[in-house]
């Protein structure tokens, strides 16, 4: 793998964590889940690319077990979180849900279950169609293994596809309600001291959820196509050996390299969308500009503080060595 690919993954792994503090204050569990899953997946792809940069050795089995399980969970977690966002926005725009404390707590609990509990269950179900422990691709690292069977279609590929379709459907309904109640929504959200959801943020959240779901859908179709390309194999004829590792060396990478690159690019695109739509907030831009402008002043003050014998605005540095 090219050197810039893991570098980009590390950069986006950090960038997608930037909006989490704001979403935590909102609170928006589903949006936080998207950032967490994207960051974890980016870190896995980057670490794998560095470890297996020019080799296909079967080392770090525990890391591969954990990382492939998390990658499998992310297949369902990302569209599930997008669906939670659109369901919430649809209810807000249709004024079918108010926000008392009990309802808010119930919503947060349900989003935690859908965004984190459901992907774990999905990973456990994936074991039923897992032919061997995992695959190792030279230059890319560990990836989950899925058997090319009819059962795999319904247990592995159909669920995230359905969630992505449901996300787009709910986004359409939410948009229709928003157009119908846009003026009232703007007035109510503007007058509420507890509401942090503006019309601009509402539109960007819908856009983010739909775009993330579309990319997830493309990734699911790509993975399913590659897995099923050799042809369907009946489950009774599928060999299962969960202690076996399938290694793909450089000589066998021609047929799968493009698929792995597109899979990596999909996560990078989703990360860019997640961070980019958040960064378009004007208060975020103004805050970032203020922080950048304050950097020279921060460094200019250090010589004065040192000449002042360690005095600062917050107190005095004490030498504990004496």
UniProtKB/TrEMBL annotation:
TM regions (residue ranges): 6-24, 31-54, 66-87, 108-129, 149-180, 201-226, 261-280
One GO cellular component term: plasma membrane
A biological-process GO annotation: pheromone-dependent signal transduction involved in conjugation with cellular fusion
Keyword terms, alphabetized: G-protein coupled receptor, Membrane, Pheromone response, Receptor, Transducer, Transmembrane, Transmembrane helix
Protein origin, superkingdom: Eukaryota
CDD domains hit by this protein: 7tmD_STE3
Primary location group: membrane
Localisation per UniProt entry: Membrane
Membrane topology recorded in Swiss-Prot or TrEMBL: Multi-pass membrane protein
Transmembrane found in the keyword field: yes
GO molecular function: mating-type factor pheromone receptor activity
Keyword Transmembrane helix set for record: yes
Family according to the record: Belongs to the G-protein coupled receptor 4 family.
Protein name: Fungal pheromone STE3G-protein-coupled receptor
UniProt organism field: Scleroderma citrinum Foug A
């Amino acid at each position: 793998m090219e050197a810039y690919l893991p570098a980009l993954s590390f950069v986006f792994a950090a960038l997608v964590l930037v909006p989490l503090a704001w979403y935590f204050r909102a609170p928006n569990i589903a949006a936080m889940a998207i950032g967490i899953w994207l960051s974890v997946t980016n870190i896995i792809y980057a670490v794998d690319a560095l470890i297996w940069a020019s080799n296909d050795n079967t080392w770090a089995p525990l890391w591969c077990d954990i990382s492939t399980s998390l990658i499998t969970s992310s297949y369902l977690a990302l569209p599930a979180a997008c669906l939670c966002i659109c369901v919430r926005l649809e209810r807000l725009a249709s004024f079918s849900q108010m926000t008392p404390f009990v309802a808010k707590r119930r919503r947060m609990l349900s989003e935690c279950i859908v965004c984190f509990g459901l992907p774990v269950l999905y990973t456990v179900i994936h074991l039923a169609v897992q032919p061997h422990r995992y695959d190792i691709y030279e230059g890319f690292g560990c990836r989950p293994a899925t058997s090319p069977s009819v059962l795999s279609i319904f247990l592995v590929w159909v669920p995230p596809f359905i969630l992505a379709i449901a996300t787009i459907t709910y986004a359409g309904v939410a948009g229709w309600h928003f157009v119908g109640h846009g003026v009232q929504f703007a007035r109510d959200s503007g007058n509420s001291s507890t509401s942090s959801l503006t019309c601009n943020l509402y539109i960007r959240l819908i856009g983010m959820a739909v775009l993330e779901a579309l990319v997830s859908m493309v990734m699911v179709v790509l993975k399913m196509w590659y897995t099923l390309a050799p042809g369907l194999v009946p489950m009774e004829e599928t060999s299962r050996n969960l202690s076996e590792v399938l290694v793909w060396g450089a000589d066998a990478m021609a047929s799968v390299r493009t698929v792995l690159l597109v899979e990596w690019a999909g996560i990078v695109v989703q990360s860019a969308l997640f961070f980019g739509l958040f960064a378009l907030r004007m208060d975020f831009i103004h805050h970032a500009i203020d922080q950048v402008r304050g950097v020279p002043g921060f460094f200019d003050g250090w010589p004065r503080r040192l000449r002042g014998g360690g005095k600062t605005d917050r107190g005095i540095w004490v030498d504990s060595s004496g």
